[in-house]
Amino acid sequence: MTPEAPVLSVDNLSLSFRSRTGPVAVLRNVSIDIQPGEIVGFVGESGSGKSVTALQIARLLPEDQVLVDSGSIKVAGHDVLSANAREMNDLRGSQIGFIFQEPMTALSPTMAVGTQLALAIRRHARCSRKEAQRRALETLNEVRIESADHVARQYPFQLSGGMCQRVVIALAMCASPALLIADEPTTALDVTIQADILNLIRALAADAGTSVLFVSHDLAVVSELCQRVFVLYGGEMVEQGSSHDILNGPRHPYTKALLAALPHISGTKELQPIPGEPPDPRQAPAGCVFLPRCPEAFARCEAKPPSFAIQSAHTAACWLNEQIAEGPTDA
Amino acid sequence: MRMPGVSTRVAKATLTLRSLLTNPVTATALSVVILLLLVGVLAPVVAPYGATSVDLANRLAPMSGSHLLGTDEVGRDILSRLLYGVRISVGVSIATVACAAVIGMLLGTVAGYFGRWADTLIMRAIDVVLSFPSLILAIALAAALGPNLLNAALAIAIVKIPIYARLAYAETLSTRQQLYVRAAKTFGVGNAFIVRRHILPNIRSSIIVQTTLDLGDVILLISTLGFLGLGAQPPTPEWGAMISTGWHYLIDQWWYPTFTGAAIFLTVMSFNLLGDGVRDLLDPTGRD
């Protein structure tokens, strides 16, 4: 098999927000790549920049407040950062699908969900109203909504959170996009429904050949769903690798701390919160971004660590890996 | 799949009407308004005489079987003139409010949605209009445009635009921040689509409430301009203009200005009460 072009490649993206006191760097040299059909986790705590990255991939951040300092974003071969407004609108929906955290508010309260779905379908497919309505029903069936005919006539407030999220997924997937960005899609849902939604996303992505960027702070969910994981901290990529490697052999103290902070169902192990607070983006650190909170910090950490390759696909930006690694990779 | 179509809309309208009728005050006001609209449309049928048919032998006649509310200074039947007057007072008011609402809503939505210079330009202009007392501005505009009914309506529409613009502006600002508006952008829809499908349906109900509340006020303004001679000109049977000539006869022929005033009073009050009812209906949180 010939290696295919990645569906998403974010290359060395650095991003700042304008503020009254000057630009504030929110992302520094973030690189992500997603191969066709891959489901990739994007993990980090609140404020780490994961949502900002996700939004910028679809250029949904307010343009007048964002400064792209360096880097590029390519989705299915299209250069996102240089696209004009019209090209961008054509990419959204057809190449990039988006699922949000709050399904109830992601749907318009003034329209029946079937109507919204039909409108979304007609945006990217030239077809009659009737045809769009028929396809809307099909799509609702695909997201495993029973009695789609009935649900299509309901307004969002008449549906449960899980139902709404299914509709939102149907909306995002209706044009079979190359890339689906799911921004914490299960956070607002009951645990029992979470598994259903995760399975649904996995099944739909496999059917449509869609790649998924799964944004979450929940390592348990990510390890369940994703083949590879990217760990973001303070606007920098600290570790990346296969889910298996990251969960079983984390190489960055932040990832270790994140795993230690996971609740265990047995309840025998006490939760270990990460001491300190997330870095203030207004004060860019000279050295390692995790230094102030790192339990394993040493003198080397005053300098910014490069990304060390532990194995071929497992890299961590931490000086602790200097000896093990074959040498720094410039990721 | 059946999208919400005609039958659901009819069902919804019936439901709305039924809830309106549960409040006796609103129900009464609604009946009066409907009656007025009917009378306005059917004026040539229900009025016993023409609006301008002069009968000089019968000047300032008191109430009688042949002239239920008497006659005016040139012998025209007052009841007939009042009935024809509905067309002007109510009809012109509805048109005026509709104009003001549509224009104001457009301006406010554009300012709120696109922001920046559109916001500054439109909302500052609106502030200028708002800084004048509305009646004074309407009088000045009507006088400047020249005294006739169309100009009076135009002046009042201009005076009323800021309320709708402000309302639409505020609602647009909050609606455009909603997740579903941002979500819509992820499907690659343009601004026009978002405004039409997401913003306007959300601001519609508050605009409708404002129009019903405004109708009474606008009827009063039309009458005021008519009374001052800046609105409809004689022999048009406009209520304000009728009072303007009628008040001279208040002592000896009291029925002339009194019934005309009563017509204005009844109409304005009915529209106001109906407006209150509609507001309560569409805004359940505002209920006492």
CATH domain class of chain B: Mainly Alpha
The first-to-last residue Cα distance of chain B is 40 Å
Identify the quaternary structure here. heterodimer
Count of runs of 4 or more consecutive helical residues of chain B:
10
Total separate domains of chain B: 1
Query: What is the CATH H-level superfamily of chain B?
Result: MetI-like
Radius of gyration of chain B: 22 Å
* Bulk shape of chain B: elongated
- Helical coverage of chain B, percent range: over 70%
By helix and strand content of chain B, what is the structural category?
mainly alpha
Whole-angstrom Rg of chain A: 21 Å
- The CATH topology name of chain B reads MetI-like fold
Unreliable stretches of chain B (pLDDT < 50, length at least 5) are none
Q: Could you say what the CATH architecture of chain B is?
A: Orthogonal Bundle
Question: How many strand elements of chain B?
Answer: 0
Strand content of chain B: under 5%
Order of helices and strands of chain A: EEEHEEHEHHHHEHEHEEHHEEE
Biggest sheet record of chain A: 9 strands, mixed
